[in-house]
Specification:
Layout (H helix, E strand, L loop, with lengths): L3 E5 L4 H12 L5 E4 L4 H11 L6 E4 L2 E4 L3 H7 L4
Parallel strand pairs: 1-2
Antiparallel strand pairs: 1-3, 3-4
GO molecular function: electron transfer activity
Protein name: Glutaredoxin-like protein, YruB-family
InterPro entries: Glutaredoxin, Grx-like_ET, Thioredoxin-like_sf
Length: 78
């Protein structure tokens, strides 16, 4: 099982799509709400250089946004 982390906000449509994708594929993930967790927001920006969400880290590979084919590839589905 790969280590999956998502930095998100409650109102982010693409964050919800990513989490739904993980759930539908039985992917266990750790979620950080950067709307309320200032330390995790700083961590997300330091790691990705981005302020937009979702920031998704699978193992040590970072992607920003919800790109289903890219996530499938990062997870080893394709």
């Amino acid at each position: 099982m790969k280590n999956v982390v998502i930095y998100s906000t409650p109102s982010c449509h693409f964050c919800n799509l990513a989490k739904d994708f993980f759930t539908a594929n039985n992917i266990v993930y750790t979620e950080y709400d950067v709307a309320t967790d200032v330390e995790k927001r700083k961590e997300m920006i330091e790691k990705s250089g981005q302020m937009g969400v979702p920031v998704i880290i699978i193992e040590n590979e970072i992607t920003v946004g919800f790109d289903k084919p890219k996530l499938a590839k990062m997870l080893g589905f394709i």
